[in-house]
Amino acid sequence: MAILVTGGAGFIGSNFVLEWFAKGSEPVVVLDKLTYAGNPDNLASLREDERLTFVRGDIGDRPLVASLLAKHQVRAVLNFAAESHVDRSIHGPGEFIQTNVVGTFELLEAVRAYWTALEAGPKEAFRFLHVSTDEVYGSLSDDAPAFTETHQYQPNSPYSASKAASDHLVRAYHHTYGLPVLTTNCSNNYGPYHFPEKLIPLILLNALAGKPLPIYGDGKNVRDWLFVTDHCSAIRRVLEAGRPGETYNVGGRNEMTNLEVVQTLCSILDELRPSQSGRSYWEQVHFVKDRPGHDRRYAIDASLIERELGWLPAETFQSGIRKTVEWYLSHPEWVQGVVSGAYREWVTKQYGS
Ligand code: NAD
Ligand code: TYD
Predict the structure, then answer these.
(1) Between β-strands 255-257 and 222-224, what pairing exists: parallel, antiparallel or unpaired?
(2) What's the average model confidence in pLDDT over 138-155?
(3) Whose CA is nearest to atom 12 of ligand 2?
(4) What CATH number has the domain bearing residue 84?
């Protein structure tokens, strides 16, 4: 028996796999296409570990998924694989439709065929957990209540629309075929192994490199930040005790404007790694053109998962962001590999072009 983790070389997926082995020893099969966002270095500490099987491949490759499910007697699939960056979805939505919509559909079909043929016991215990985002609910006004699981879907970017479509497919496979699915809709994550195209790692690395810190628009957009290992613990808990067919919102009740996030990062860096110029990193801030269709505010009401499954985050924003800065400062080789593109060279060497 094993679990299949798609997208396990990405930011959240790799944190999930590392945490999984820190807490137990059930084997994991990672299926990852190794796009620009998939970095095998994230799982480097497990390279010699026999509990991990790493397969480079696409969730849209139905025969490949079918063979992995059968070969490893998979008891649960956790679908992290996705194109995940809003700005990229604005420049090129096609890949988002391909992976997030068509890929999820192909994955569901492979899983449905496998699950249908299982014997009663394993069939009953099987789970398909789909990792999704709060962005499917759209944007909130400043005083609107936080998103609950019954909030209507109003995705505004090609990214969130493609994730919304995948959520709908997952839901339909439960209602139509009885597939035991679980969906989590989480707020913005941050922490180790975060690819520096997203706000927090981008600001951190630009600050240290003496580059401008780009803030879109007026910087007053609000996100609800959750430390990545808290997201991982929520997913483990939902997998263990969530009700099939249910959706669980996951969030840390840490609403912050982008300006507040960047201010916090700059002040921790000023303390831990002061700039050689003697100036605060804050002086590197540049306001730039806003993102088209930029959602103003996201906020998650996590009371269902808290009440029903007893999940609570372990980190506050203050503790998590400090851990994040410390991790980036103490892992210059990981940062260097990403910034120089060296990890892509490894991917080409290992897997060909
Ligand atoms: P990421 O972009 O860092 O990682 C995505 C991973 O999926 C990469 O390793 C990539 O190589 C892989 N992948 C992409 N297309 C694939 C395909 N067709 N087949 C197999 N693998 C493929 O993303 P992340 O931030 O780790 O997000 C993981 C999941 O969590 C996504 O589904 C995302 O929508 C969701 N999510 C992210 C956040 C966040 O703040 N990052 C918040 C809530 C939900
Ligand atoms: P991001 O990390 O891309 O996550 P998402 O768009 O999925 O919430 O962006 C977080 C917020 O930071 C969002 O409001 C856009 C803003 N942002 C900037 O102001 N500057 C940047 O360079 C980036 C990447 C994001």
Answers:
(1) antiparallel
(2) 98
(3) 199
(4) 3.40.50.720
